[in-house]
Amino acid sequence: MQQYILALDQGTTSSRAILFDHDGNVAAVRQQEFTQFYPQPGWVEHNPLEIWNTQLAVAREVLQANGVKPSQIAGIGITNQRETTVVWDKNTGQPVFNAIVWQDRRTAAICDELKAQGEEAYIKAQTGLVVDAYFSGTKVKWILDNVEGAREKANRGELLFGTIDSWLVWKLTGGKVHITDYSNASRTLMYNIQKLEWDQHLLDVLGVPASMLPQVSPSSQIYGQTSAELFGAEIPIGGIAGDQQAALFGQGCFQPGAAKNTYGTGCFMLMNTGKERITSNAGLLTTIAWGLNGEVHYALEGSVFIAGAAIQWLRDGLKIIDESPDSEFFAMKAPSTEGVYVVPAFAGLGAPYWDMYARGAIFGLTRGTSKSHLIRATLESLAYQTKDVLGAMEKDAGTPLAVLRVDGGACANNLLMQFQADILGVSVERPKIIETTALGAAYLAGLACGFWTMADLQSKWHLDRAFHPNMSAEERAKLYKGWQKAVERTMGWEDSEK
Ligand SMILES: Nc1ncnc2c1ncn2[C@@H]1O[C@H](COP(=O)(O)OP(=O)(O)O)[C@@H](O)[C@H]1O
Ligand SMILES: O=P(O)(O)OC[C@H](O)CO
């Protein structure tokens, strides 16, 4: 009987379940979007139970619709939106608050306090991160400080914290396993990536009891079995990785120097740096890529908060397109933006600027500006943000990137990919499978379950299409200068001091 790996890809806007066959091809997919809550400007929440219910529903559906029995699943790989924070009661399994999403800015003031206390250098050296509301640590503190009775319960050892991977494993195993992997732990602001342990100093500073924290494990191992009643039989869980690190793995970037850029809700460029922890001088993060075969691999990361989400804003906020792919059709009608720039700093700016107080803006409007110009400028903003990050990465790595491998939903947009190659002056390569996040999680699970070996994975990457730069250096420099001017003007917008 045909065997598969089931990847559970819990993203910011949807939960997906994907079956991969032994060739690494997608055999079937199911996906459900779930509710985004914006209780106040700058706040973003998810309901952890809705995340669990949609994730379970798509996993069941993908098996049932394709007549696949649990015994045909060699293992489950989990990959997830990172940093998003869930705190739940150990005894009842009920979340004490909504999940605070990675994009949420409510803890900016806590971050400012950390900076004022002089913790910035320590945090950068020990966690590889910058002090920003993006990461989980300040979100846990906020929940303990603001949810009635939470701190007392936490101090009594009754509450558990987890990023989405931990929450899903907890639910999948019927509350038996509280675990995360190195890649997810390295996004919490509480994990010491040098010593590979939770950092007691930061736990003290944030007031987070160690009893809340999951055990940190490699990204590929058998963590436990799913409860038999969920799928009709137990299935081993064999892989866990944050979605961006999973995409790096799924893109076959196994060697130091290999890099990928994922265009999903946000846009995340990661470069494998092997066993070397490179400290960025250019506004990037040092993060754990994965733990595998007794070793931890590191990566440099440029995190852009709003990418595909800006296209969703055109669709849901402005309602000027019906579907995200329509953005290409309208952008094609305008050969250029005619000087219009959209800076989608809806959640502040991430790498390389790290400005929690920046906000979105549109520049260069004239009476001749049309819907097509606006849509094109929004698409181009994904490429400009990527250029900002690539520039930083080349500075840190000390070498120019020869080619950029891309993936994620928005990389299906050919106009965007061509503009990306043009504005970078670097070729962009899109693989046949752009579901590389799920593929990476499947690979990690497949390795743990003996479904694949590393040698099998080396040959699985196949090119769909390459986009080569076709813009003069002069034009590129002119356009990019305009972008930099626009970004500059969005910075510090929400900061009452400025
Ligand atoms: N053809 C397209 N052109 C531009 N953006 C697109 C296109 N298709 C999908 N997107 C955007 O890509 C994102 C979905 O990508 P996906 O990789 O599924 O993201 P996530 O895992 O963050 O939910 C959405 O934000 C959507 O707006
Ligand atoms: O949901 P995605 O795929 O945009 O990924 C979100 C990131 O993991 C946030 O760090």
Automatic annotation (TrEMBL):
Sn-glycerol 3-phosphate binds at residues 12, 82-83, 134, 243. The keyword Zinc does not apply. Residues 4-250 form the Carbohydrate kinase FGGY N-terminal domain. One of its GO terms (biological process) is glycerol catabolic process. Signal peptide: none annotated. Glycerol binds at residues 82-83, 134, 243-244. Its EC number is 2.7.1.30. Residues 260-448 form the Carbohydrate kinase FGGY C-terminal domain. One of its GO terms (cellular component) is cytosol. One of its GO terms (molecular function) is ATP binding. ADP binds at residues 12, 16, 265, 308, 409, 413. Pathway: Polyol metabolism; glycerol degradation via glycerol kinase pathway; sn-glycerol 3-phosphate from glycerol: step 1/1. It catalyses: glycerol + ATP = sn-glycerol 3-phosphate + ADP + H(+). ATP binds at residues 12-14, 265, 308, 312, 409. CDD domains: FGGY_EcGK_like. Belongs to the FGGY kinase family. PANTHER family: GLYCEROL KINASE, SUGAR KINASE. This is Glycerol kinase. The lineage of its organism: Bacteria, Pseudomonadati, Bacteroidota, Saprospiria, Saprospirales.
